[in-house]
Amino acid sequence: MTKFCSGIILFFILICVIWAPMLMYSSGNPSNIPNPIKDVNVQIDIKATGGGLTPFQTTLCEIIPYKESDIFDDIETHNYLDTYNVQDIQLICCQSDASTMWLVPPIVQLRYIKSLDNSTKFLFTWVFTRERPKGKEVVKYESFVEQPPTPDEVKQVLNGTTDHFSLLNAYPRYFRVTSSGEVRRLEQTASSVSSDLYLNRGSPPWWSFHDVNALDLVGCKGMSGPVAIVVSEETPRWYLELQ
Q1: What would the 3-class secondary structure string for 10-55 be?
Q2: Span 48-62, pLDDT tens digits
Q3: What is the rounded CA–CA span in Å between residue 171 and residue 189?
Q4: What are the b/e assignments for 226-235, b being 16+ CB within 10 Å?
Q5: d(CA 139, CA 41)
Q6: CA angle 55, 60, 183 (to 5 degrees)
Q7: What is the DSSP letter of 97?
Q8: Which residues make beta-bridge pairs with 140?
Q9: What does the alpha-carbon distance between residue 12 and residue 136 come to, in Å, rounded to a whole number?
């Protein structure tokens, strides 16, 4: 009898150890507090032996809640989002034109062109701002473009021979921002975004980012800049009380 009771007690202890953390962090936990994305910044940097330059940067991004289901009806999500709470999912649509001008002096640009070689990389950065957790309100996701343009292709745009080059598999389409303040590619997703980066030769010049699959995201109302679908996890109330 004693062994039987001990077995039952051990069973319930194991259940608590396994399920308690899942319940605390689950979006179905009524004690959790929604923690949506409030602000977004997108940036593309060129990293070469001659240093780094930032051709594209924008903070002009619209954040659309998933609960506006009519917007998401035409977006193919491959059931990636089925297990998440709809109030935690947001569509991020950014303007295609950079919010900063290309103000690199000609002499500096000429020297930079000479530094471009096969080691040149393109760094894509998403910066997400939320209200919590404390100390991690602003989090970023950085990734190098998997298939960047060749040095010659970049040089041709900078010297005026052509007006754009391509960034293939530039960044993940889906992100998950955890309750603890980490940014990751959404699990089980392989979808990456490819784009064309244009140098508009106005006075002054500026860069534009054009998602090559922008037509698939009608929810962005014609905006063809950087687009992402983000799951921003709720924050457990007890976690806030510990801060």
Answers
A1: HHHHHHHHHHHHHHHHCCCCCCEECCCCCEEEEEEEEEECCEEEEE
A2: 999 999 999 999 999
A3: 12
A4: bbbbbbbbbb
A5: 10
A6: 80
A7: B
A8: 127
A9: 35
Q: How many helices (H) and strands (E) does the chain have?
A: 5, 14
Contacts of 200 (CB under 8 A, 6+ apart): 97, 163, 206, 207, 208
| Residue 105 C-beta-side C-alpha neighbours within 13 Å | 3
63: pLDDT strictly greater than 60: yes
Domain ranges of the chain: 31-241
Angle between the N-to-C axes of helices 151-158 and 106-115, in degrees from 0 to 180, rounded to the nearest 10? 170
Q: What is the 3-state secondary structure (H, E, C) of 174-213?
A: EEEECCCCCEEECCCCCCEEEEEEEEECCCCCEEEEEECC
**pLDDT attached to residue 9:** 59
Residue 63 in tokens: 């954040």
**Span 177-193, average pLDDT:** 89
Q: Is the dihedral of CA 56, 57, 63, 66 positive or negative?
A: positive
Q: Is the pTM of this model over 0.85?
A: no
Residue with tokens 């980066």: 197
